[in-house]
Design a protein that fits this description.
The complex is a heterodimer. In chain A, 74% of the residues lie in helices and 0% in strands. Chain A is an all-alpha fold. In chain A, helix 5 (123-131) crosses helix 6. Chain A is globular and about 55 Å long. Chain B is an all-alpha fold. Chain B has a single domain (3-85), classed as Helix Hairpins, CATH 1.10.287. Chain B has three helices and no strands. The chains are: A mainly alpha, B mainly alpha.
């Protein structure tokens, strides 16, 4: 049952990603990408990452994609430009490079991490039972990864300042 | 559980993102393809976190923060370019071409 649901959402994710790449209008591309992000959130739930799935919907589908749509509509780019997609040569190159990339990456599907470092099956679910869905992520975030977490806040501050400076007409 | 299938799906999504960057000219659509690639990597992290510990999920957290910062700054750059050139077509923005 879980496997069937997994493949259903995987098919939605891949199909809408293809549509996102090939649609001519930027608005249509953005909306198909939103569907991809929702399908990925569903995959995260199946893979025992419920809190990350909520963040995916809130941050990616909610905030980042709204920013994209906002800029597309602000610049009035909703209509497709005539030269948006490149010619047949670029499609051939993209197809060849894509296939060349997919073959080594698909080898990943059969790869498994060494047994010595693998946790036993169901460890994550047990951890979430014990500490709660948010607690299982929050505890290492505020203990082991405290310094990277604080540095992330500096990164976000720099991004805010940078975005304001870049988007302003005159300082 | 479902580790192999999840890695396969993320490989396909990453490849679609790369192909998208190669076949489009609209800067915003290319940016969305980059986001697609970041999400494919997130799927890898989450799939491996099942068997290798919760650190993988923490890394997804950081990837999301970096993606948000990147989107804000990148879209501000696109806005600034549009103000100067009245276009976001990367075929026409060739100032750095020799």
């Amino acid at each position: 049952m879980t496997t069937t649901i997994f493949w259903a959402f995987a098919a939605i994710a891949v199909g809408s990603a293809l549509l996102c790449v090939t649609r001519r209008s930027p608005i249509a591309s953005a909306l198909w990408l939103v569907l991809t992000l929702f399908a990925l959130a569903a995959l995260f739930v199946i893979l025992d990452a419920q809190f990350i799935a909520v963040l995916q919907v809130l941050v990616y589908a909610g905030a980042i994609m709204v920013l994209f749509l906002f800029v597309i509509m602000l610049l009035n780019l909703g209509r497709a430009g005539p030269s948006d997609r490149k010619g047949a040569l670029a499609w051939a190159v993209a197809g060849a490079l894509g296939a060349g990339l997919l073959v080594p990456l698909a080898g990943l599907a059969r790869a498994a991490p060494p047994a010595a470092i693998q946790l036993p099956e169901g460890t994550m679910a047990a951890l979430q039972q014990q500490q709660g869905l948010v607690g299982a992520v929050a505890r290492p975030l505020f203990e082991t990864y405290l310094v990277p977490f604080e540095i992330t806040s500096l990164l976000l501050l720099a991004a805010i300042v940078g975005a304001v400076v870049l988007a302003k007409r005159k300082l | 559980m479902l580790l192999g299938p999840a890695l396969a799906v993320s490989a396909v999504l990453f490849t679609i993102g790369v192909a998208g960057v190669l076949i489009r000219r609209n800067a915003i659509v290319i940016f969305m393809c980059v986001e697609l690639m970041l999400n494919a990597v997130n799927l890898t992290f989450v799939a491996l976190a099942q068997r290798l510990g919760v650190s993988g999920q923490i890394f997804v957290f950081f990837v999301m923060a970096v993606a948000a910062a990147e989107a804000a700054v990148g879209l501000a750059i696109i806005l600034a370019i549009y103000r100067h050139r009245e276009t976001v077509d990367l075929g026409k923005i060739n100032l750095l071409k020799g």
